[in-house]
Each structure stands twice: as C-alpha cells, then as structure tokens.
Specification:
324 residues, alpha+beta, Arc Repressor Mutant, subunit A, 2 domains, 4-stranded antiparallel beta sheet, 11 helices, 49% helix, globular
C-alpha cells in the first residue's frame, strides 16, 4: 500500500513544475527513455496515462502526444479490442539507446590530442549542408569555420556514412606545437558554445542542488510516486543540457566547467530515487493487469552502477557462436 506523500517533496515538485512546465510530448519521451525502454519499452496506453498523471498531464494530452510520436516514427501501436498497446519502433529504440548512453555514461576517456575534421565542399546544396551540420553537432562536432567542423577523436558516434552520403571529407589532424595559439584547441569556446552550455548547467545545479540535500533527509518519507516524479524531472532537465554538451576532454574545458558537478548531482539524486521509482512503475503496470519486465542488464550500469540490492535486471545473455 502506498504511503502518504512527504509534504516537503510535494512542495518542491509543485514549485518545479510551475517554474518550468515541461511540454507533454517531451516529458513522455523522457519517461519512455528513462523508465520504459530498460523494461522493453512497451505498455498499455492507460498505463502511460497513469504514469503521466502525477505531472499534471491529462489523458487528452497523453493521447495527442502519443499520436504525434507514432506519426514521427518513434512509437508503433497494436490494438487489442478497445485497448491500445504501444512500443518503440526499431528506429526509436536505436535513437533512445544512443541518447541515453550519453546521458548516463561516465566522463570521457583520456585524449591524445588528435581531432576528427570534416570539410564540406563549397558547392554542397544548402539543405544537405544543414542536414549534415545537424548530424555533426549530435556527434560532438563544433563549427570552427564556414563548412569546417571538428571534434576530439575519441568521440564514439560514427559519422562516416553521413559524410560519404554528402561528399564531405573526413581527416585527422593535430595542432602544431609551434602554432598552439591559433590551433583548434584555442577556439573550442565559440565553436561549441561552451558559455551557453555552462550557463544551462549552472541553472540545473541551482534548481536541483538544494533539493538533493533535503531529499537525503526526506527520501525515506517520500512515497514511490514522488520518487518516480523526482527522478523523471531530474533526468528530463539533465537530458536537455547533457545532449547539448559535446563532452570535451578536460584539457579543452575552462577550469570552472560545471558539467562534472551536474553529472555528479544527477548520479547521486538518481541513486536516491531509483528503487522507489521502480516500485511505482511496477504498481502502474500491475494496475493494468500487466507485469513489468525485468530491466535490461545495462540499467544497473547507469551512472557508474546503481544499487544492486534494489535493481533487479534480466540476466545478460551471451551470443552463441555458430557450431557450438
């Protein structure tokens, strides 16, 4: 039986939702990626309506948002009489996995000083050029000059197919020791909009930092629904800034870069809320006569490892070699 809501946590949730009301469709994307995708990414529409109710999102907004996610190729529906069941498409699952791998992953590895540089031909069609620019930004490239994009070489998003489709050139480069003042490393600030990203990180820290200390005191009194709402709002806000972050190595960042502090805050807050949040998710599934599937093994690895005692995951299955 669900316990009473903690009044301190309730007030914080109300203030947070009122100060920056999330768009229903965007919030559903967060819920699907953070909470549902690890459990197979499939549920009844009524279960999603139950999950969104604590955020003040009514059933009409949920239905409209889901319709748009289906139209945009993220979700697909299956009718069972008068009920509808939704799941991620293969393309939607791939996009979620790519995004959330970045959100929950550890800081970037050591850097050897080399760069991936993309040069776009001057005669490239404007529409194709803009599409490539957007793909490159997602993959961690900054704009260093007109039609010239670069990123530290260790980035894990492969862009070779996108570059080949648009006849661009990909080369590896390093800054000359004799020209450090004019090298790529000297221009990372404007190329990646580091001041703008730092400003959003600091707002995130101000918004959630104070509540982390309070929640440590009130976590045992908060009920499962509150834990789910807090965890979702935390990741919703962190997702919006972390996916803009090019995740540059420490050598290229300002000394007061707030990204590491924001990651630590998200990690610590997530670990406080995840066990209760998972219990709420299970109860919502049960209310629709459904069973919440075990989480994928990768779920327990989020933010460097969750509490194994309260995180039940499916066993990792090793592929069977042909002929064995």
């Amino acid at each position: 039986m669900e316990g009473a809501a903690d009044p301190v946590v309730t007030r914080w949730i109300r203030r947070t939702l009122a100060s920056d009301p999330p768009r229903a469709k965007s919030l559903i994307v967060t819920v699907w990626g953070d909470a549902l995708a690890p459990h197979g990414g499939e549920l009844w529409l009524n279960a999603l309506i139950r999950l969104m109710a604590p955020f003040g999102v009514n059933d009409r907004l949920v239905r409209t948002s889901v319709f748009r996610l289906v139209r945009d190729g993220w979700l697909q529906a299956r009718a069972h009489g008068r009920r509808s069941r939704y799941r991620l498409t293969s393309a939607g699952l791939a996009s979620f996995e790519r995004a959330y791998r970045r959100i929950y992953s550890a800081p970037v590895p050591a850097w050897n000083g080399s760069w991936d540089v993309v040069i776009v031909p001057a005669d490239e069609d404007a529409g194709r050029r803009n599409a490539l620019r957007d793909e490159l930004r997602w993959a961690g490239f900054g704009a260093f000059a007109h039609s010239v994009y670069a990123r530290p070489t260790f980035a894990d998003v492969d862009v070779t197919s996108a570059i080949a489709k648009r006849n661009a050139m990909l080369v590896h480069a390093t800054d000359l020791a004799s020209a450090q003042a004019n090298g790529l490393a000297s221009r990372v600030g404007p190329a990646f909009d580091l001041p703008g990203i730092a400003s959003v990180y600091r707002r995130y820290l101000a918004r959630f930092g104070g509540m982390l200390d309070a929640f440590r005191v009130h976590a045992e009194r908060a009920n499962a629904e509150q834990a789910f709402v807090v965890r979702t709002l935390l990741i919703h806000a962190y997702r919006r800034v972390s996916l803009r972050d090019p995740r540059l190595p420490a050598e290229l960042l300002p000394l007061d870069w707030p990204g590491a502090a924001a990651h630590a805050l998200a990690r610590n807050f997530y670990r406080l809320t995840q066990a209760q949040a998972e219990r709420f998710l299970g109860r919502v599934f049960a209310a629709e006569n459904d069973v919440l599937p075990l989480a994928a093994p990768e779920f327990a690895e989020r933010f460097g490892g969750l509490d194994s005692a309260s995180t039940i995951v499916a066993p990792r299955v090793r592929p069977v070699k042909a002929g064995s």
